[in-house]
């Protein structure tokens, strides 16, 4: 289970330690190599680093080359520092980078990652199903599935490797989302299940705790007390379904305009009210995405006026980027209608200013530097920022061969959330 109470720092093992409910990784050096890309040929390494990566300034990359953190490996030998500055990259050159990694912490999900509980857990993760080909887990919130961005050792794939298990994720769940995670034990099975997902033969049911009294919730009073129904029972009555059908896209400010705006694609989600919490004016909702777009459930709920209670982006009460959110709520497809390219670019610049303004206003602690590598050190995230009240409850394929349902997250059962809201009134 996830530990919500702050914990004292435990003994560090293999660079891993725990503090205040977070799983933390001590800084370490990490090297990676890649073959020179065609567009790099004939250019000096400093020029390539400065133009393409942009994570550091040209001066910082120059210092990195002097420290041999960036190297050109030619004919299995690393060039000297002076040669690395002057040489032009050739075909078959290998670019080697050595970085001092500062991984962000993740939410601590268990007290002992080595506890297997006679096959019921692995790496502290709850096992939903295991056979020779598959490992199905109940993913906790607050940890990414596989190495990505700044995360490497703080990922489920790497945690499982530490337990001697190689597993291949067959689908994605956001870092802050919990629930059914189907992993294959070999590439063949991973490709097979990924094919089924692409063909939309998998039915997925999520749970979300949302703001307000959800449509048709009055027809669900029978579900308001006692144990929750199964995922199948919760979505059995089509008369209780509310269907949201609107186009979905994302806006990634790390990209340049207009590539920052992804193509808007049609998306359909069915919603079924499960339980209404009168004291907090919140509803537990079962969600069945018919299509599979990024953040589909979260965006659809927000557009319906029932955002997920603790959604850090798509709930107006929580978002740090209200202008960008309002645009996505109002504009279902940016590529059609009355928005000109010039106007769209103006929106993009506004979103950039909003983002920069927020980051410039963050606590000064983020401007502290690592004494060893000079990188900016960011403050630890808050526990509540690593959890979303969205849970992948059930996955089932059209044949019924794959049929998995997880245990319920505490926020779907905990009546204390309702009582706390009542006490504030």
Automatic annotation (TrEMBL):
Endpoints of the signal sequence: none
Domain of life of the organism encoding this protein: Eukaryota
Residue ranges constituting the Pseudouridine synthase RsuA/RluA-like domain according to the UniProt record: 133-302
GO biological process: enzyme-directed rRNA pseudouridine synthesis
Name assigned to this protein: LAME_0C02080g1_1
Molecular function in Gene Ontology: pseudouridine synthase activity; RNA binding
Name of one Pfam family that matches: PseudoU_synth_2
CDD domains tied to this protein: PseudoU_synth_ScRIB2
InterPro entries documented for this protein: PsdUridine_synth_cat_dom_sf (IPR020103), PsdUridine_synth_RsuA/RluA (IPR006145), RluA_PseudoU_synthase (IPR050188)
